Known about the structure:
The chain is α+β, with helices and mostly antiparallel strands and 452 residues long. The protein is built from 13 helices and 14 strands.
Amino acid sequence: MRLIEKTKELLEKEKGNFRRNFLKLILAVPFWLILAALVLIGIGVGRAIYLTDTRPDQYVAEAWQNGSDTAFRHMTVYAGGIRPGGDTSPMVCAEGNKSIRLADITEMRKSLQGSSSTGTEAGNKNIAFREDRLRGWEDCYSSTVMAKLQAIDVRDGLEVETGSADTQLVAVGGNYRAFHTFRFLSGGFLPETPINTHHIVINDVLAWKFYRSYDVTGKTIIINGEMFTIIGVVEEKNTKVAELAGEQQNRAFIYFGTLESIFKKDDSENGDADGYSNIGNGYIDYAVQCYEAMLPELVNGVAVTDFKNALPNYSLSNPQYYVANNTGRFSVTRVFDTMFPLGETDRERLGYEFPYWEIAAQMTEERLFYDYVIVGFGIILLIVGLATIALKLRARKAVAPEELELVGEEDVIVEDEKPLLISRSKTATDSDDKPKLESLDKKMLESGEDKD
């Protein structure tokens, strides 16, 4: 019997301990909420900072306005075209006013220069249009195409081929370097004003594949029989987004004007393709795939309007092109505006061939959206945790001091903002109160005898 009683007592004791520990855990919920909130906020913010830091090409407006009293805005337009020979054929202008020609660039520059020249000369930057040169703002244009490159090196006085590889060529014009930041492993980039149109810049992937070295300036590259001299090697970004966007593939940069000399023979063989724009005399009308401009913005939003107005055949009802407002595109409001309504942005981007840097920017937007959601959820948890603590403190203050003497702090919980005492009060059965009860019984007996 004693064993059974002791077992029951032990079980009752353990039950009471479990109950107290469970209540303590419940009372500690605000702490866990706040801890979880801080972890989520830290993860979301940390990832967001990392993602945005890997895309400096989306923050060139901030760098450009350094030292100026006027803000600048980075705008980009992506146009359509066709490739008569597939990926190994440069994009040429298509019928239907969906392409941007080199001739359009001149007219766009005049329109943008007229808009930019009105105002206060862009702060400390001088704006004028002299000798067909831009002042106070910048622009560039580009197009991509796949080609086979052959590397030539001189060994023992003889020219030998050290390798060949399928490579993405980026044909550029204007001040491309101002919009795309590079880290150079050797040499530099193509000057805005060509010194030699047959200069070429390759990336680190291609340099190592061909020469097992990055110090390769002065060496020769052959593209479709045309010889080019390497003047620089750029380092590609080594991130997961960059890898998925194709930034780490073989790549080389040439002048836009050399497309004709490299691909004229190939394109003439495809000259009868439907929808192909040929302006005569055997000249191929190559399309500008991407046009970028850095515009002074004296009034918020005016640069966006000026840029769209300068585009040929552009209208809000039938835009013909995809326009990207790069400045501030990674902000919380802009990212959510891009993601919602669901599918709307994807439909707008459908049918365009984006270069690798825009693909990487779009992938960064998607990842930032999830990071911002994580941060938002963490902020909600933080608010809930702080509110719970505030209610708990309020409930404790509402309990009378004499009640706090009888009830331990750990035995008070909050339910509907009222203190609920869950510990059992000290009763006459407690061992500490037995002497008091015996004394009380004696006094009652004595008083009864006196009455008799």
